[in-house]
Specification:
Radius of gyration of chain B: 23 Å
Number of domains of chain A: 1
Structural class of chain B: alpha+beta
Shape of chain A: globular
Shape of chain B: globular
Distance between the termini of chain A: 15 Å
Number of strands of chain A: 0
Number of strands of chain B: 12
Strand content of chain A: under 5%
Strand order of the largest sheet of chain B: 1-2-5-4-3-12
Order of helices and strands of chain B: HHHHHEEEEEEEEEEEE
Distance between the termini of chain B: 70 Å
CATH class of the largest domain in chain B: Mainly Beta
Helix content of chain B: 25-40%
CATH class of chain A: Mainly Alpha
CATH topology of chain A: Arp2/3 complex 21 kDa subunit ARPC3
CATH superfamily of the largest domain in chain B: Rod shape-determining protein MreC, domain 1
Number of helices of chain B: 5
Oligomer: heterodimer
CATH architecture of chain A: Orthogonal Bundle
Helix content of chain A: over 70%
């Protein structure tokens, strides 16, 4: 629990740093989504990871000023937390990067679907641009974080 | 353990997911609820300190660049001001002659951006003005160049601004000098589209776009942008006009909120 909280605090600091200083063309990586995915991937208790996703999402919407749709992050993070925990049942070392990358794309896709529903029905190219830009940026930062914090080893030890 | 308990335990994960999704939807559909707004406002006021170090760092890193931009803008505005001052005297004299109703001066208050929002794409910002400064929901928000958004929620010391670049943002505008009216919405980067413009209206590239008097929340004649392209919709009596915003949404720092009442 203590480690979970420490990584959560690091994620908040990173998210705020990216939000204020490192936006690229208006886009920024979703570090909190990354945190939910990477922390749930080793949890075999899906209920716990789903609830963690819900409360972290609620915190993100309330405190981190996540736009103005309260509840959207809780929805996306709950689903991502649940899906990530399913991975732990057939976890394999060589597939680690593939799992979290797919989950980042799914999470960002869900986020975009609710946030840019208007474009989903009217301008698919713009919708896809939003989705892929955030996903690719999040994945890039995810690669750096997983390598820097040796997340793969930590997850394998937990799993 | 009874059969029901066994089924419940087996499908507990799914039930928990369902409950979380259900509560999330309840929150999403009740965003305008007074209690939820109040709870959100107090959470923002309580935790706003987390933005301060990053905001300070942002100001320090980009200080020289910001000074350059401001100096350039200042010079440009000074030159414009000289021309406008002479026009103002003439305009007031003519309005007096025609007995036009006096226009109200805008009641502006400056605000600093605290956070650009932890969102994939910037569509809202948090500013350091709130109820104690006389800010209300739906107040218009301007940059030094023109309209950038409106207030969507207010707490005691902070407010959330929905930017023009939000997909749900709409504002009623008029294109000068033809005074053709339409509804503006954001398309991409600093480009917006004005819909519902009569095809008979005489619009040219470079025409100025201002807020119209049909807008409920925005005072009339606030600068918004300039026309960059015009095309006619097939099977429609309307034109679609594309415009470029005067404000650069990527480099927003200080904003001005138009207060109502006075």
């Amino acid at each position: 629990m203590r480690v979970y909280l420490i990584y959560f605090l690091i994620s908040i600091v990173l998210q705020l740093a990216f939000a204020e200083l490192l936006t690229v063309n208006g886009f920024q990586p979703n570090i909190i989504l990354l945190f939910i995915i990477l922390s749930s991937i080793s949890m075999d208790n899906a209920s716990r990871s789903t609830m963690a996703g819900f409360f972290v999402g609620l915190f993100s919407d309330l405190v981190l000023f996540n736009g103005f749709y309260l509840g959207l992050s809780s929805l996306v993070f709950s689903v991502c937390g649940y899906l990530s925990s399913q991975v732990s049942f057939n976890f394999a070392h060589r597939n680690f990067d593939l799992y979290w990358l797919i989950l980042v794309f799914v999470g960002s896709g869900l986020y975009s679907l609710f946030r840019y529903d208007f474009f989903f029905f009217n301008d698919m190219i713009f919708f896809l641009k939003n989705w892929f830009s955030v996903s690719i940026y999040t994945s890039f930062v995810g690669f750096l974080i997983t390598r820097a914090f040796r997340v793969k080893q930590l997850v394998l030890e937990d799993a | 353990m009874t059969k029901t308990e066994l089924i419940l335990k087996k499908k507990l994960d799914i039930y928990i997911l369902f409950v979380c999704v259900f509560f999330s939807f309840i929150l999403i559909f009740n965003n305008n609820n007074q209690k939820i707004q109040k709870f959100r406002s107090s959470a923002l006021d309580t935790f706003s300190f987390v933005y301060q170090p990053f905001n300070w760092l942002d100001n320090q890193i980009f200080l020289i660049k910001k000074l350059e931009v401001l100096s350039y803008e200042n010079l440009k505005l000074n030159l414009e001001n000289q021309i406008l001052s002479s026009n103002k005297v003439e305009n007031e004299r003519l309005r007096d002659l025609l007995k036009f109703k006096k226009r109200n001066e805008l009641n502006l208050i400056g605000a600093d951006i605290l956070s650009k929002g932890v969102n994939a794409n910037m569509s809202s910002v948090l500013v350091d003005r709130g109820l104690v400064d006389g800010i209300e929901r739906n107040n218009a928000v301007l940059s030094s160049r023109g309209v950038v958004g409106k207030i969507v929620f207010v707490s005691n010391n902070h407010s959330g601004v929905q930017l023009v670049s939000d997909v749900d943002f709409r504002v009623s505008v008029k294109i000068m000098p033809s005074e053709a009216e339409g509804i503006m919405r954001w398309i991409k980067n600093d480009i917006c589209e004005i819909a519902e413009v009569q095809s008979t209206s005489d619009i040219e590239i470079g025409d100025i776009v201002l807020t119209s008097n049909l807008s409920i929340h925005f005072p009339e004649s606030l600068p918004v942008g300039e026309v960059v392209s015009i095309h006619k919709k097939s099977n429609s009596s309307n034109k679609v006009v594309r415009m470029k915003l005067f404000s650069d949404l990527a480099t927003l720092n200080q904003l001005f909120i138009v207060r109502k009442g006075e």
